[in-house]
Q: What sequence folds into this?
């Protein structure tokens, strides 16, 4: 690949060593029968041993939304860290009247998300297979609980080596911190430093974070919903709407 392009991707002029992926909403997604927030949370609460019905959780969510709208509490957009997610759980616990707000209970609930029914996008395995056959090393970098590892290994373990799966809870640091990207680079490390790209659904945390914090050669924003067509992207970042676009993008000579 050449250095620089009109669509924002800037890779050094040497072979690409490895391609890393985010997990949720990049390679895989969770889905319950009704697939509503209340149903998903009820599923998680049950797994965590918290005895609340879907109806009770829906009422708690309504109270949460009302308090956010009234400015009584602040809502985080796409929280990534355990403490950020635990803060949301804490609000629900207040509305539900749950007295046990210990960190161990929060962690137990946090770990149940990976146990929701999980499916691969239809373009995930074909893309991974194609890239592997083309000689790229593959990996995953995910802000997730350790309980997600067996799910990842079950669904893509034949294509992505376990040693190349980096999970935030296991190493105690989250994207977009520099350390988690360095850990990914170390998995495929060589001298000079390897040329890596990361593909993810979160523009700031995945694509921009990989370039600006991780010093990756490129960050690719997977905008599956197609809402970012007019989004301005920084140097080194490009946007795609399907993983089917990935292999051609990585293999083509980009105009300078």
A:
């Amino acid at each position: 690949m050449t250095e620089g392009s009109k669509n924002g991707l800037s890779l050094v002029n040497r072979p690409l060593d490895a391609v890393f992926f985010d997990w949720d909403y990049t390679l895989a997604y969770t889905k319950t029968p009704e697939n509503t927030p209340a149903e998903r949370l009820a599923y998680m609460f049950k797994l965590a041993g918290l005895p609340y019905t879907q109806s009770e959780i829906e009422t708690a969510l309504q109270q949460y939304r009302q308090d956010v709208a009234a400015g009584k509490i602040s809502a985080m957009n796409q929280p990534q860290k355990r403490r950020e997610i635990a803060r949301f759980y804490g609000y629900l616990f207040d509305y539900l009247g749950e007295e046990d707000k210990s960190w161990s209970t929060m962690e137990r609930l946090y770990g149940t998300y990976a146990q929701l029914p999980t499916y691969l996008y239809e373009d995930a395995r074909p893309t991974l297979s194609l890239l592997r056959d083309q000689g790229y090393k593959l990996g995953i970098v995910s802000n997730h609980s350790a309980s997600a590892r067996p799910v990842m290994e079950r669904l893509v373990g034949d294509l992505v080596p376990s040693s190349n799966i980096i999970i935030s809870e296991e190493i105690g640091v989250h994207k977009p911190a520099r350390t988690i990207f360095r850990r990914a680079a170390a998995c495929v490390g060589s001298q000079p430093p390897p040329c890596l790209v990361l593909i993810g659904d979160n523009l700031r945390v995945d694509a921009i974070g990989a370039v600006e914090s991780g010093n990756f050669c490129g960050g690719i924003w997977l905008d599956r919903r197609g809402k970012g067509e007019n989004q301005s992207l920084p140097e080194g970042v490009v946007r795609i709407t399907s993983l089917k676009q990935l292999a051609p993008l990585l293999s083509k000579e980009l105009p300078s």
Q: What stands out?
A: The chain has a mean pLDDT of 90. The two ends are 10 Å apart (CA to CA). The chain is about 40% helix and 15% strand.
